[in-house]
């Protein structure tokens, strides 16, 4: 394998702001080479679209791009340094090279693991995953073809036995034929087993690839655009396996078994002439029945899928909210919802099962009618001398190979298709939801932590306007307190500043750049956000402290933990930083979770600190020491926005913004705003926009 080229592709992806799957190199074989066509071969092997060939003199906005030069091999052309000079990155480092016409430039169509590349339909994702494994599918197809040919051989064996061996007592012929058929059957066994193992391995691979894609897509759905609960979302992903297994079995059916059924019709015709009419009549009948069946069960499978997902949602919810449910004796309430959903699932599944049962009996009867029809019609043909007895036996056996796929496989596949279709619809729903940030995005060297809101309006899914901020600017280096009544919009505003929610109208900029256009990793480096309720994930404390960060080493982690007091938890536990955290951060107290979140921010050192009620879970002493540690870490030019209900914390900020009913109702220097709030509820404040003087009427009270 050409490591050099894959290294360069990895670097180009990073430079283009694309999150390649960590496993993108897995399974790459050797022999791609280092020549000019190596990139095209590599893309084809990985299953990416072929690279786009750029102009011989690419425009500045087409860079960075991969470049191949006759004398220097592969490199990344980063940017133009002058009219004829290119800044080029090779494995040896960065150098400047003169442009010459032998250079070729290529753009790679990266799939982004966190976004899944271009918007597409869920079915296309499965198709692509199958197509990426063309060689395995071709092998399985060849095996299926040979297995079918062996079936043909066994039927012809019967014909020979009836026509040649029995009338002439030709035992020598019988032995030869029998040995031949036994060898063929052994080969058949080997091929079937190999096909099953191969398909199983590929199925696992496809599962891994497809589930990675959809999991990443579901993760990247913008927080404010998420519809449905956690359980429903989880259930949407559950249909993956069903769709995958249908796609693999359906492709083998359509590509091998179905065409072979047609081929076998010709064989029956060759053996018995007119008797082929029997399967020929049954064939369209079974297809028509299959189509009718698929229509009949369609609505049932869809309803069953939807209620099934709601059932899953309720299950997740009941465990997640177990404390509330138990404390409020909500068990019966949850149980009655559960029972209602079970009833709904059964109601929608009953017609599906009914039609499935009817269908399988109908298809079995059709199969038997086909057999009887073939034998009866064949007997007439044999007695007329138009075919031999052996020919009839062979035709009956082959008739089974025609009926098998059509009568036995088709009904099951139609029902699976009904379920898979509704799973695909749900997966399409995930793909259609807006994603966090565009692939690529702006990648400035540094972002000034200055925030500006311009005619911003925001509403949660399905609600009317929640936030309306005509103008707000927070300069780099400002320390701002955000206060307001319960539900006044503080958290929503903070999440917008963090780039977690996107404005429905208007623009939010960070350092002059539209926040929604900044590359995700750059944004997350610059912005530190501490949610009101810090949730931890399954793993170790270290994993939770370092999630998404480069490991600065234990000394740096412990230094930060010392400042927040988290070190007490670490030193009290025998496993120290490796102390296990269970799902949802269970095992740590609310205060310890908050300390973990703050310690993480101290390690990350963002330039924009967004803290949502950082001390609500902390005692007075811890609050003082933790907030001091935070203020010590916030450098001169760094910005702080602190949501709080505690007036005591406002001494740490120089400016206070008061929220009320989704709007800014007061904005000014801390002392003036506090004085205004203390004297009366009718202060004059300036329209929010960074002005430091109070000048507008408000009736809002602070926290
Ligand atoms: N996920 C959501 N979906 C729909 N509406 C929401 C959601 N989260 C919050 N809201 C609504 O948006 C409004 C503002 O909520 P927000 O959490 O920003 O208030 P807050 O000022 O932070 O309140 P608190 O002080 O209680 O934390 C509230 O009316 C709330 O009901």
TrEMBL record:
Q: Which residues form the ABC transmembrane type-1 domain?
A: 138-407
Q: Where in or outside the cell?
A: Cell membrane
What SUPFAM superfamilies would the database entry show? Answer: ABC transporter transmembrane region (SSF90123), P-loop containing nucleoside triphosphate hydrolases (SSF52540)
Entry superkingdom: Bacteria
Q: How does it sit in the bilayer?
A: Multi-pass membrane protein
Give the keywords, sorted: ATP-binding, Membrane, Nucleotide-binding, Transmembrane, Transmembrane helix
Kindly report the protein's main subcellular placement as a broad class.
Answer: membrane
Q: Which GO terms describe its molecular function?
A: ATP binding
Where does the ABC transporter domain start and stop, copy by copy?
Answer: 451-686
Listed transmembrane segments: 136-159, 171-191
- This chain belongs to the protein called ATP-binding cassette subfamily C protein LapB
Query: Species name for this entry?
Result: Sphingomonas japonica
